[in-house]
Amino acid sequence: MLKQSLQQKQLQRLSPQQIQLMKLLQVPTVELEARIKEELEANPALEEGLEHESHDDLAEQEVDRDESLEEFNFDEYLDDDTPDYKTSIRNHGADIEEKDIPLGAGSTFREQLISQLGLQKLADYDRMLGEHLIGQIDEAGYLRRDLDSIVNDLAFTQNLMVEREELEKVLNVIQTLDPSGVGATSLQECLLIQIRRKQEQISDEVRLASMFLASKILEDHYDAFTKKHYSHILEKFEIDENVLKLALDEITKLNPKPGNSGGDSSRPVQHVVPDFILRLRDEELVVNLNQRNAPDLRISPAYKEMMETYSSGAKTSKEQNEALSFVKQKVDAAKWFVDAIRQRQMTLMKTINAIVELQEAYFTSGDETDIKPMILKDIAEMIDMDISTVSRVANSKYVQTPFGTFLLKTFFSESLSTDSGEDVSSREVKRILHDAINEEDKKKPLTDEKLGKILNEKGYHIARRTVAKYREQLGIPVARLRKEL
């Protein structure tokens, strides 16, 4: 049975201003510049400048500038033969940091391959197939897709009936291009292409013997090589460790990602711009927000006057009402954006000051053992804000210190207790773990269990699974894969 009724409910919803602030909090400095420019272009009621500058002052400056331009005669200077570079000047000292990032001009990796392909003796049809295959090669230099799939693509998308053998023939030509190993379908094939090409270029008999052994290992015992089952390889070839070591040295000199060495990649380079700059002045830590190219923003005085004019006058027509509504909408949007930028700056400074206060010992010394255990909740309680707000700040902001530039979230770590009952940061444990692995005997690498015993002997009570977790976070492989001859 259907029934209608009225109910009152209390719902918590985010306002547009709150949503805008959360989005701006996540934006790093570089993206903030673009966001401000985008808003300046979209909203005519928003402009650059300080709020205390009046419209009359700006008008007077504009009139003075126009009058000075009228009095200035440009014709007297147009016939000057002095080169432009002799009239340019740098108005800052050598210690001022250059903010501009130079843009490198050059061909992409695939363009270089296509250029080399054009020098090969190929029919137009084969060259077209070659360009299609090059388009399928990834940034690392590999052809990841199966040739049968590419045959189907050509049939369905370009109505070309191509045999797999035709593609294989053209692919063999691509694999002769530079850098060596490009166009391979697997790591094994990539290394084999490189080692065989090297064999053609080397005349030294000792190195040739090592390369021949290396190619046989890659071709026939690749699985044993990847798992570092060296005893199996020694037994199969009936050689000693010194001979095997020479062959392995040849393999380690090969490039597993030839595409990354083939000139400029089409992938843009990511430049890290710090959001905070921390300095040590007279034994006192000073942290500033990196404003970079973010200008001061204000509401346009012209739009303020326009809104006052429309508001005070009698609105006798629909057009005047629409004009007032449009002006008010733009002025309100500009106010929201200016307030959001200010709140963003206040929130960022509160967060970084709390972090610096907790980690003062580290920021003064630069020693990782001085990092204190710190979680998001600690900072949230200090600045009286939500944990999600601190998370948004920490996950995307960098701080420049005298010891390097770091992501804020790297200073957050779990706490561990030592024998003495002292709480230490997990970063300190990771550093000790890293040092222990660097000093181990590579012929007999330390297992996670042995690493756990070493840490326990130093007073850090850690389970083997925790050691494995920290080792993986450090990007260090298991003991079996760290083994060397």
Chain-wise SSE layout:
Layout (H helix, E strand, L loop, with lengths): L15 H11 L2 H14 L3 E3 L6 H17 L37 H9 L6 H13 L10 H11 L6 H11 L12 H15 L3 H16 L1 H5 L3 H8 L3 H12 L23 E6 L2 E6 L7 E3 L1 H12 L5 H41 L1 H6 L10 H8 L3 H8 L3 E4 L2 E4 L7 E3 L5 E3 H13 L9 H10 L6 H10 L12
Parallel strand pairs: 2-5
Antiparallel strand pairs: 1-4, 2-3, 5-6, 7-8
Helix pairs in contact: 1-14, 4-5, 5-7, 8-9, 9-12, 13-14, 14-16, 16-17, 19-20
How far is the N terminus from the C terminus? 81 Å
Helical fraction:
40-55%
Q: How are the strands ordered across the major sheet?
A: 3-2-5-6
Whole-number mean pLDDT = 79
Shape: extended
Tell me how many strands there are: 8
Give the number of helices: 20
Order of helices and strands: HHEHHHHHHHHHHEEEHHHHHEEEEHHH
The domain tally reads: 3
Can you describe what's shown?
The protein has 485 residues and is α+β, with helices and mostly antiparallel strands. It folds into 3 domains: 109-261, no CATH class; 276-411, no CATH class; 415-482, Orthogonal Bundle (Arc Repressor Mutant, subunit A). Helix content is 52%, strand content 7%. The protein is built from 20 helices and 8 strands. It has helices at residues 16-26, 29-42, 55-71, 109-117, 124-136, 147-157, 164-174, 187-201, 205-220, 222-226, 230-237, 241-252, 301-312, 318-358, 360-365, 376-383, 387-394, 426-438, 448-457, 464-473; strands at 46-48, 276-281, 284-289, 297-299, 398-401, 404-407, 415-417, 423-425. A 4-stranded mixed β-sheet has the order 3-2-5-6. The chain has a two-stranded antiparallel sheet with strand order 1-4. Helix 4 (109-117) runs antiparallel to helix 5 (124-136). It is extended, with a radius of gyration of 33 Å.
